[in-house]
Structures are given as structure tokens and as C-alpha cells.
Design a protein that fits this description.
Layout (H helix, E strand, L loop, with lengths): L1 E5 L4 H12 L3 E6 L7 H10 L12 E3 L6 E5 L5 H11 L3 E4 L8 H4 L1 H21 L4 E5 L25 H20 L3 E6 L2 E2 L8 H10 L3 E5 L5 E2 L2 E2 H12 L23 E6 L5 E2 H12 L4 E5 L14 H7 L7 H15 L5
Parallel strand pairs: 1-2, 1-5, 2-4, 5-6, 6-7, 7-12, 8-11, 9-14
Antiparallel strand pairs: 3-4, 10-13
Helix pairs in contact: 1-8, 3-5, 5-6, 7-9, 9-11
């Protein structure tokens, strides 16, 4: 297939693009390479995929030196004219939209970034797919849409009308807009609610990266909600395998549709929502213990109240994904944490 992966210099996008390239798909990667976090990490990921450039110009297309079937271009989703031209030129079969302004806490200080990228940008993706006969749109949602829900595990059949951060609200809006395009134009769309993704090449604003760096440097780590946090940590390889299942199986209209059902998953449109998580929540203090064990160092903890926009626990019900695609995450927390730390020590030249 010919596939567009937006956010391909990002954590999940990098791993997904490489997986698709390895299996023989033709991939075009798009990323704005913004400075939300260290761009050297983004360029480092691109170099692993054969995109050797430290300063890529806007709208420039660069061919990989490793994969003949990989082209990278730099742009943001708000650039609707370039996006339209890109779609018209490449005639994509499938689009995977992972590009977004990420982070719950950052949305408190820079809300407009989320409106531009996550809402305006997503509308541009929908329009480009609609007008270019794209056969399947898969896009990143988030477990944060569950907001103040207290029923666990979180199910895609639960109501999610009470987000507690603008980031979560922007992701919920993506699901609503996608449904509209599926309903009006027959565009198959699948939204994926990711649960705390971690692993090698991860984002520096995530807990594993922050904690590892601080422990190595002998600095204290901020442990919110006094450590009483629970997260459904999901290893990157398990995330990618789940995404690929939905890439290869576009959403179809629900034959059992009931117009009286309050369940959004019962829509007649070619529209799906799935949780992708490990479905095995881990206590934050146990997560920190796994880091300490691998590093052979003890963490200095600064225990603090929960932050605005944060939720105390996440727990994915992956029943639908398992039923439809036999999805079974396999990576336990100690194995995943150890893999990340080995990558981290190597990338930042510790001990060399």
C-alpha cells in the first residue's frame, strides 16, 4: 500500500513508519519537527530511517538512504494547500494521522497550539482524505478522553463527555469529526485511544524519560498524587502491532446498528474506536521501582498533589480489539523499562 504517516519523526510515528517500510509498504512521512521537545531527538529518529539532514526545509521531500520506499517531507497539518497538493501527488491508499500537539500539562499554558494542530489540522486531514478517495484513515486519539470517568476498565462503549484537559477535549473532537465524515462521505475512519506509550526513542516529556534522567543525575523526581497514580503502561511494539491491525482492516458499517442506542460505537457509519493498552495497570511506585532496578540506583522522590488535568488511573478494556484482531500485548513492564534504559544510556553516551 501507499501510506501517509503524519508525525513520522515522533515517537510512535517513527516506530510505525519503520514497521511498514520493513514489510514493503511505500511510506511518505510528514512532520513539522516543532520544538515542543528537543528536535535533536526527532532528527535522531529520522536518521535511523535513513533521512540524513539536520535542517530540513519546509515542504522539501527527502528520500531515505536506507529504504527506497520512504520519502519524508516537513510541514504542519495547518498548511492545507501543501497538504492538498501532497495528497493529489501521491494518491495515498491509507493515512495514519499521528501528528498532534501532545501533552496534558502543556495545554494549560499554550491552548492555541492544540486548537491549531489537533482541530484545524485534523479537519485538513479529513478534507484531504475525502477529496482524494483515501480508503482508510486511522488516527490517534487518547486515553485522556475518559477524563473523570470512574468505572474501570475504560471501555470504548462508555460515555466520554467529560474531559478534564483541553488536550483530551481536542482528541474527543477528532472522534466526533471523524464520525461526521464517515457518516456523510463514507470515509472509513478508526480512532485509537493510546494508553501511556513508552519504550526506546520515547518522548522527553513522559515519566519514564524524566525519571530516568533525574535518577542518573542524582536529582529528585516529582511524584504526583503522592505516588497514588496507576497507569496502563503500553510498550511501543505492542502499540504498533495494534495500529497495523487497523491499517489492514478498514472500518466497516455496523450491520447490527440500532438507531436508539446511546453507544457511539453502534454507529452505522464505517467508523471504529479502539483502546490500545496493555490492559494491566501498574502502580506508579512499582514503575519507579523497575527503573531503579535496571539502573541500580535509588530515586529521590518529591511527592506532590495531583496536577490539574491529570487523572489518577487509566485502565484499558481492549475487548473489541482482541475480539476483532486477536490483539494481545506481550511486553511486561520490567522488560519494556529495561529496553528503554538501554537505549537511553546508549543514545546519550553514558559510560562511553
Amino acid at each position: 500500500m501507499k501510506v501517509l504517516v503524519t508525525g513520522s519523526a515522533g515517537f510512535i510515528g517513527y516506530h510505525l513508519a519503520n514497521y511498514l517500510l520493513e514489510r514493503g509498504d511505500e511510506v511518505v512521512g510528514l512532520d513539522s519537527i516543532n520544538d515542543y521537545y528537543d528536535i535533536n531527538l526527532k532528527y535522531g529518529r529520522l536518521k535511523q530511517s535513513g533521512i540524513y539532514a539536520n535542517d530540513i526545509k519546509e515542504e522539501e521531500e527527502i528520500k531515505s538512504s536506507i529504504y527506497q520506499n520512504y520519502t519524508f517531507t516537513k510541514s504542519n497539518l495547518e498548511n492545507d494547500i501543501y497538504l492538498s497538493n501532497l495528497f493529489n501527488k501521491h494518491k495515498f491508499d491509507v493515512v495514519i494521522n499521528l501528528a498532534a500537539q501532545a501533552g496534558v500539562r502543556y495545554s494549560l499554558s499554550n491552548p492555541k497550539a492544540y486548537i491549531k494542530s489537533n482541530i484545524e489540522g485534523f479537519v485538513n486531514i479529513l478534507e484531504a482524505c475525502r477529496h482524494n478517495n483515501v480508503k482508510n484513515l486511522v488516527y490517534a486519539s487518547s486515553s485522556s478522553v475518559y477524563g473523570s470517568n470512574t468505572k474501570v476498565p475504560f471501555s470504548v462503549h462508555d460515555n466520554v463527555d467529560h474531559p478534564v484537559s483541553l488536550y483530551a477535549a481536542s482528541k474527543k473532537s477528532n472522534e466526533l469529526m471523524a464520525h461526521t465524515y464517515s457518516h456523510l462521505f463514507g470515509l472509513p475512519t478508526t480512532g485509537l485511544r493510546f494508553f501511556t506509550v513508552y519504550g526506546p526513542w520515547g518522548r522527553p516529556d513522559m515519566a519514564l524519560f524524566i525519571f530516568t534522567k533525574a535518577i542518573i543525575e542524582g536529582k529528585p523526581i516529582d511524584v504526583f498524587n503522592y505516588g497514588n497514580m496507576v497507569r496502563d503502561f503500553t510498550y511501543i511494539n505492542d502499540i504498533v502491532k495494534g495500529i497495523v491491525k487497523t491499517i489492514d482492516n478498514p472500518a466497516k458499517p455496523n450491520e447490527d446498528w440500532n438507531s436508539n442506542s446511546p453507544d457511539p460505537a453502534s454507529s452505522k457509519a464505517p467508523y471504529n474506536i479502539y483502546n490500545i493498552g496493555n490492559s494491566s495497570p501498574i502502580k506508579l511506585l512499582d514503575f519507579i521501582e523497575a527503573i531503579e532496578e535496571k539502573l541500580g540506583m535509588n530515586a529521590k522522590m518529591n511527592k506532590m498533589p495531583i496536577q490539574p488535568g491529570d487523572v489518577p488511573f487509566t485502565y484499558a478494556d481492549v475487548t473489541d480489539l482482541t475480539k476483532n484482531f486477536d490483539y494481545k500485548p506481550k511486553t511486561n513492564i520490567r522488560e519494556g523499562v529495561a529496553n528503554f534504559i538501554e537505549w537511553y544510556l546508549n543514545f546519550y553516551n553514558y559510560g562511553n
